[in-house]
Design goal:
The protein is of the alpha+beta class. Helix content is 30%, strand content 32%. The protein is built from 3 helices and 4 strands. The protein starts with a helix and ends in an 8-residue tail after the last strand.
């Protein structure tokens, strides 16, 4: 499921000129349950001070080969289950990023 989500992210980004930041930002204000429904279970999940921190990881190799890299996408939901913050690291640059 996670690989499908990442493939969809890439496809949407390339097809619609949407940056990775735009895609991540689109989840702010949305229910955590909706994110979990679309992305599936996170690879890691912790609760701290009423917040829920969820991280998905995907290992990829660029189309020219080379070393594998791991993309990490993290969302933080508040105590009411609403996405408030996001971050990503080492993810491929898409479109206008």
């Amino acid at each position: 499921m996670k690989k499908i989500v990442v493939i969809l992210m890439i496809g949407l980004a390339l097809a619609g000129c949407v940056s990775t930041s735009d895609l991540m930002k689109s989840w702010v204000g949305k229910p955590e349950s909706r994110l979990l429904e679309k992305w599936g279970a996170p690879d890691s999940s912790t609760r701290s001070n009423g917040r829920h921190i969820m991280t998905w990881k995907n290992t990829y190799t660029n189309r020219y080969g080379g070393n594998a890299s791991t993309c990490r996408a993290t969302f933080i939901a508040d105590k009411n289950g609403v996405i408030k913050k996001w971050s990503y690291s080492n993810c491929p640059a898409f479109s206008i990023k």
